[in-house]
User: Which sequence fits this backbone?
């Protein structure tokens, strides 16, 4: 009975991975197709990667999307970290329920509603003060608002599993709250911050709805270019560009996991050494 259920679980897991990664593999496979018809294989070639260098619209849109995604990732981690810290450490203050609800609101409000709300806000500000014009800045604000909630939830989950005695011990030794946060809290939640950064980067670079509503005539990002080209027919250059992004993200994830695992092994080794020293001291002095 257990073996049968285990076989069903393995089959289900394999189907999930196929559902997730087969479409990505198809994009990578057809990026090396020599034919201009993306669904017909005619031979192996790098011609579409070379064609990217002369496609100014696609490359400029990709560079603009990369800039926005990087800015969004850093700003979301900065704001989301403080929001998550406040929610986790200061649960009882006036307005805490409203504050938590406002931080989590972007998770449940449809993105199109958020985009329209920000669009009306920016239009009203521009008509009143002449600023800000719709463009890179307004897209950055919209993407940051969209991603802060994800970072805050990740930070809250990590802080909830931490040992509060570490903070209390540092405070008893005379450390200020800011010193406790920078020396104790930040190193312990670094993995959550990296995860939030990568998630924010991915959401920003892939967003269509918020980008379409908040973009201006001089701020066309990659999702809008790809969307407009898909309506006219699939372009093999899009497969090549998508493969480059997949490769970059894969390398970043692998490197991040490598350093995280190495850091975890080093921490476990240090804990084992500390335990061995403590055991040796107790064995040397039984009376203690």
Assistant:
């Amino acid at each position: 009975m257990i073996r049968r259920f285990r076989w069903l679980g393995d089959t289900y897991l394999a189907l999930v991975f196929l559902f997730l990664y087969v479409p990505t593999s198809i994009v990578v496979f057809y990026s090396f197709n020599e034919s201009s018809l993306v669904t017909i294989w005619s031979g192996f070639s790098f011609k579409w990667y070379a064609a990217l260098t002369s496609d100014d619209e696609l490359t400029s849109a990709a560079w603009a999307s990369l800039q926005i995604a990087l800015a969004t990732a850093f700003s979301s981690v900065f704001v989301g970290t403080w929001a998550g810290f406040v929610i986790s450490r200061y649960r009882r203050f006036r307005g805490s329920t409203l504050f938590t609800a406002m931080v989590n609101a972007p998770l449940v409000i449809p993105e199109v509603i958020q985009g329209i709300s920000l669009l009306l806000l920016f239009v009203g500000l521009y008509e009143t003060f002449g600023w800000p014009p719709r463009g890179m800045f307004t897209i950055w604000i919209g993407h940051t608002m969209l991603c802060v909630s994800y970072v805050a939830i990740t930070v809250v989950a990590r802080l909830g599993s931490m040992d509060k005695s570490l903070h209390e011990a540092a405070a008893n030794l005379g450390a200020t709250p800011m010193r406790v946060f920078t020396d104790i809290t930040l190193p312990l939640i670094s993995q959550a911050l990296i995860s939030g950064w990568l998630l924010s980067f991915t959401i920003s670079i892939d967003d269509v709805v918020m980008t379409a509503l908040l973009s201006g005539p001089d701020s066309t990002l990659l999702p809008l270019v790809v969307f407009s080209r898909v309506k006219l027919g699939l372009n093999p250059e899009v497969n090549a560009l998508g493969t480059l992004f997949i490769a970059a993200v894969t390398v970043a994830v692998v490197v991040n996991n490598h350093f995280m695992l190495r850091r975890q092994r080093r921490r476990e080794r240090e804990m084992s050494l500390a335990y061995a020293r403590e055991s040796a001291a107790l064995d040397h002095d039984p009376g203690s």
